[in-house]
Amino acid sequence: MAERGYRLKLIKYYALSGLIIVSFLAIACDRELAAQKNVETKEAKYAIAVLPTPVLNTPDFQSVFGGRDGRTLKLTAKNLIEEVEFVALPHTVFVIEDTIMKGSREILKVSTKDYPYHAVSGYYIDSRFVEKRFEKPQERQRKLPDKNTIIKRLLSPEQLGAIYVWGGNYSKGIPEMLEFYKPSGTLSGDVLKRWTLKGVDCSGLLYEATGGYTPRNTDSLLFFGMPVDVKGISPDEIAKKLKPLDIIVYKRHVLIVLNSREVIESAISQGVHVKNLLSAVRAVSEIMQPANDYKGDGKGDKFVVRRWYPE
Length: 311
Hints:
alpha+beta
């Protein structure tokens, strides 16, 4: 009888222990499910570009790339897509400010250190170009290439002859645009290039060649680096002062010095092309005054020369 009672106690003990273990497992499982649910419902605060990412000043990408008929680009009279601000390079980090659904497409309103300019309408990206993150990723590394590498990139086959694309700074183009915003018909020529943003604007030419090291618009390039003293001197004297990668900048445009004889630029009418340095300086000097300080030197139209590459 004593032995039987002892066995009954053991059975009760193990049964109770099992119940406690099951209870602990159930609690742990519930906590895990709750944590998972919190992660799923929590909104990501950041995004990182995994592809070259078009950044627009409107959330309505479809109206720009396709329009009502599915094959029309929204162009100005000068064939510019003014809704495009720039192309964010891979590893660019965005702060997500809002999420907007356009049909099945998720459009993110964002800000980024790579484009620190104010816009009343804000800046927008298609979420298919990025990965969303809950924790802030490391910012894109900015490493200045050596001078010869930059000049070689400026004169590369992808750059020379590339068309002028407003907001463009990725001359290879973005083929994913044909997948994400598939045109309803066959595209060719410059329309195909503009649809895939295969071209560069004037500051985008330098931005791409430096791997995204330089500022992305001319307003910033006006004050980038150090001034070259050109105030009050002739075009011939200015030309003699210039060194490779010096930039000749005025409102809304920049030319890049290649050597003692040539400059390169991306112009609306001609795209990316090389021209004579002295002729370029003379042409600019005919319509603007050379200045050392864009804001401080007198009034009227003027241009400056900035030496930004370290000696």
